Request: fold
Amino acid sequence: MVGSRPGLGARQAAVLILIATEPAPAILFVERSRRLRHHAGQIAFPGGGVEPADVDLAAAALREANEETGLDRAGVSVLGAFPAAHVAVSGFDVSAVIGWWHTPGPVSAADPREVESVRMIDIADLVDPANRARVRHPSGYTGPAFIIDDWLIWGLTAHFVEGVLDLAGWTEPWDRDRTVEIPERYLTDRRNVGGTNAH
Reply:
Protein backbone atom coordinates (compact mmCIF):
# COMPACT_ATOMS: atom_id res chain seq x y z
CA MET A 1 0.00 0.00 0.00
CA VAL A 2 2.15 2.88 1.27
CA GLY A 3 5.21 0.83 2.17
CA SER A 4 7.05 2.08 -0.90
CA ARG A 5 7.16 5.58 0.60
CA PRO A 6 7.78 5.11 4.36
CA GLY A 7 8.10 7.99 6.77
CA LEU A 8 11.49 9.69 6.90
CA GLY A 9 11.34 11.18 10.37
CA ALA A 10 10.02 14.46 8.98
CA ARG A 11 7.38 16.70 10.56
CA GLN A 12 4.29 14.66 11.34
CA ALA A 13 0.83 15.08 9.91
CA ALA A 14 -2.33 13.05 10.42
CA VAL A 15 -5.46 12.52 8.35
CA LEU A 16 -8.75 11.01 9.47
CA ILE A 17 -10.34 8.12 7.59
CA LEU A 18 -13.82 8.48 9.06
CA ILE A 19 -16.06 5.47 8.43
CA ALA A 20 -19.80 5.64 9.04
CA THR A 21 -22.01 2.56 9.04
CA GLU A 22 -25.45 4.20 8.91
CA PRO A 23 -27.49 4.55 6.76
CA ALA A 24 -24.90 2.70 4.61
CA PRO A 25 -21.16 2.17 5.09
CA ALA A 26 -19.40 5.29 3.81
CA ILE A 27 -16.19 7.32 4.19
CA LEU A 28 -15.83 11.08 4.61
CA PHE A 29 -13.80 12.99 2.02
CA VAL A 30 -13.05 16.66 1.48
CA GLU A 31 -12.30 18.65 -1.65
CA ARG A 32 -9.43 20.91 -0.74
CA SER A 33 -9.56 24.61 -1.50
CA ARG A 34 -8.18 25.61 -4.89
CA ARG A 35 -6.38 28.51 -3.20
CA LEU A 36 -4.06 26.33 -1.14
CA ARG A 37 -0.31 26.31 -1.71
CA HIS A 38 -0.01 22.51 -1.92
CA HIS A 39 -2.50 19.88 -3.12
CA ALA A 40 -5.02 22.55 -4.17
CA GLY A 41 -8.31 21.08 -5.32
CA GLN A 42 -7.33 17.53 -4.38
CA ILE A 43 -9.82 15.02 -3.01
CA ALA A 44 -8.48 14.01 0.38
CA PHE A 45 -9.22 13.16 3.98
CA PRO A 46 -9.48 15.94 6.54
CA GLY A 47 -6.22 16.45 8.36
CA GLY A 48 -2.99 18.37 8.61
CA GLY A 49 0.17 18.96 10.59
CA VAL A 50 0.53 17.79 14.18
CA GLU A 51 0.69 20.71 16.62
CA PRO A 52 2.38 20.86 20.04
CA ALA A 53 -0.98 20.71 21.86
CA ASP A 54 -1.94 17.44 20.14
CA VAL A 55 -1.33 14.55 22.53
CA ASP A 56 -1.02 12.06 19.67
CA LEU A 57 -1.76 11.51 15.98
CA ALA A 58 -5.40 10.70 16.65
CA ALA A 59 -5.86 13.98 18.49
CA ALA A 60 -4.31 15.85 15.57
CA ALA A 61 -6.53 14.11 13.01
CA LEU A 62 -9.68 14.74 15.03
CA ARG A 63 -8.77 18.38 15.69
CA GLU A 64 -8.14 19.02 12.01
CA ALA A 65 -11.37 17.27 11.02
CA ASN A 66 -13.27 19.45 13.47
CA GLU A 67 -11.66 22.63 12.12
CA GLU A 68 -12.23 21.70 8.48
CA THR A 69 -15.67 20.07 8.59
CA GLY A 70 -17.20 20.86 11.97
CA LEU A 71 -17.03 17.17 12.95
CA ASP A 72 -18.09 16.49 16.55
CA ARG A 73 -15.17 14.47 17.88
CA ALA A 74 -17.36 12.94 20.59
CA GLY A 75 -19.11 10.90 17.92
CA VAL A 76 -15.92 9.16 16.78
CA SER A 77 -14.10 6.11 18.14
CA VAL A 78 -10.51 5.70 16.97
CA LEU A 79 -9.80 2.17 15.71
CA GLY A 80 -6.12 2.44 14.75
CA ALA A 81 -3.75 4.00 12.24
CA PHE A 82 -1.62 3.16 9.22
CA PRO A 83 2.15 3.65 9.42
CA ALA A 84 3.39 7.06 8.29
CA ALA A 85 4.08 7.67 4.61
CA HIS A 86 6.32 10.47 3.37
CA VAL A 87 4.94 13.15 1.03
CA ALA A 88 7.84 14.89 -0.69
CA VAL A 89 5.93 17.91 -2.03
CA SER A 90 4.89 19.04 1.46
CA GLY A 91 7.72 17.46 3.45
CA PHE A 92 5.40 15.68 5.90
CA ASP A 93 5.27 12.14 7.20
CA VAL A 94 1.52 11.46 6.99
CA SER A 95 -0.29 8.92 9.17
CA ALA A 96 -3.87 7.90 8.48
CA VAL A 97 -6.00 7.50 11.61
CA ILE A 98 -9.04 5.26 11.18
CA GLY A 99 -12.17 6.27 13.05
CA TRP A 100 -15.64 4.78 13.39
CA TRP A 101 -18.33 7.46 13.24
CA HIS A 102 -20.70 5.79 15.69
CA THR A 103 -22.82 8.93 16.16
CA PRO A 104 -22.96 10.80 12.84
CA GLY A 105 -23.72 14.50 12.90
CA PRO A 106 -23.70 17.42 10.49
CA VAL A 107 -20.49 18.20 8.57
CA SER A 108 -19.76 20.87 5.99
CA ALA A 109 -16.95 22.96 4.54
CA ALA A 110 -16.41 24.71 7.89
CA ASP A 111 -13.20 26.47 6.86
CA PRO A 112 -13.42 27.70 3.24
CA ARG A 113 -9.72 28.58 3.34
CA GLU A 114 -9.03 24.86 3.57
CA VAL A 115 -12.05 23.05 2.15
CA GLU A 116 -14.29 23.60 -0.89
CA SER A 117 -16.77 20.81 -0.16
CA VAL A 118 -17.38 17.71 1.95
CA ARG A 119 -18.85 14.43 0.76
CA MET A 120 -19.66 11.02 2.17
CA ILE A 121 -18.86 8.33 -0.41
CA ASP A 122 -20.48 4.94 -0.07
CA ILE A 123 -18.00 2.13 0.36
CA ALA A 124 -20.03 0.21 -2.22
CA ASP A 125 -19.04 2.85 -4.78
CA LEU A 126 -15.38 2.67 -3.79
CA VAL A 127 -15.45 -1.12 -4.07
CA ASP A 128 -17.26 -1.12 -7.45
CA PRO A 129 -14.74 -2.33 -10.08
CA ALA A 130 -16.24 0.15 -12.57
CA ASN A 131 -14.97 3.00 -10.40
CA ARG A 132 -11.39 1.75 -10.08
CA ALA A 133 -8.39 2.48 -12.27
CA ARG A 134 -4.74 3.44 -12.21
CA VAL A 135 -3.60 7.00 -12.91
CA ARG A 136 -0.52 8.28 -14.69
CA HIS A 137 1.00 11.61 -13.60
CA PRO A 138 3.18 13.72 -15.94
CA SER A 139 6.07 13.12 -13.51
CA GLY A 140 5.93 9.40 -14.28
CA TYR A 141 4.11 8.41 -11.08
CA THR A 142 1.45 5.73 -11.46
CA GLY A 143 -0.86 4.52 -8.75
CA PRO A 144 -4.38 3.51 -7.78
CA ALA A 145 -7.38 5.74 -8.30
CA PHE A 146 -11.10 5.85 -7.63
CA ILE A 147 -13.42 7.69 -10.03
CA ILE A 148 -16.57 8.78 -8.21
CA ASP A 149 -18.85 10.99 -10.31
CA ASP A 150 -16.80 14.14 -11.01
CA TRP A 151 -14.16 13.36 -8.38
CA LEU A 152 -10.86 11.59 -8.91
CA ILE A 153 -9.30 10.16 -5.75
CA TRP A 154 -5.61 9.42 -6.37
CA GLY A 155 -2.15 9.63 -4.83
CA LEU A 156 -1.62 8.86 -1.16
CA THR A 157 -5.33 9.25 -0.44
CA ALA A 158 -6.12 6.46 -2.91
CA HIS A 159 -3.38 4.28 -1.41
CA PHE A 160 -4.97 4.68 2.03
CA VAL A 161 -8.45 3.91 0.65
CA GLU A 162 -7.07 0.82 -1.05
CA GLY A 163 -5.49 -0.23 2.24
CA VAL A 164 -8.79 0.10 4.12
CA LEU A 165 -10.66 -1.92 1.49
CA ASP A 166 -7.99 -4.63 1.48
CA LEU A 167 -7.78 -4.87 5.29
CA ALA A 168 -11.55 -5.10 5.59
CA GLY A 169 -11.75 -7.79 2.92
CA TRP A 170 -14.03 -5.63 0.76
CA THR A 171 -11.88 -5.45 -2.37
CA GLU A 172 -13.35 -6.98 -5.52
CA PRO A 173 -11.35 -7.92 -8.64
CA TRP A 174 -10.90 -4.94 -10.95
CA ASP A 175 -9.13 -4.17 -14.22
CA ARG A 176 -5.61 -3.22 -13.15
CA ASP A 177 -4.71 -2.49 -16.77
CA ARG A 178 -7.22 0.36 -16.93
CA THR A 179 -5.19 3.58 -16.85
CA VAL A 180 -6.53 7.13 -16.90
CA GLU A 181 -4.81 10.48 -17.20
CA ILE A 182 -5.11 12.93 -14.31
CA PRO A 183 -7.41 15.84 -15.27
CA GLU A 184 -5.80 19.27 -15.40
CA ARG A 185 -7.86 20.47 -12.43
CA TYR A 186 -5.78 18.19 -10.18
CA LEU A 187 -2.41 19.26 -11.57
CA THR A 188 -2.16 22.62 -9.84
CA ASP A 189 1.21 21.55 -8.46
CA ARG A 190 3.10 19.63 -11.13
CA ARG A 191 5.48 18.22 -8.52
CA ASN A 192 2.57 16.70 -6.66
CA VAL A 193 2.79 12.94 -7.02
CA GLY A 194 1.03 12.02 -3.78
CA GLY A 195 -2.34 13.76 -3.63
CA THR A 196 -3.04 13.97 0.07
CA ASN A 197 -3.88 16.78 2.39
CA ALA A 198 -0.86 17.36 4.60
CA HIS A 199 -0.06 21.04 4.69
Observations:
- The radius of gyration is 15 Å.
- The helical segments are 57-69, 123-127, 155-168.
- The longest helix spans residues 155-168.
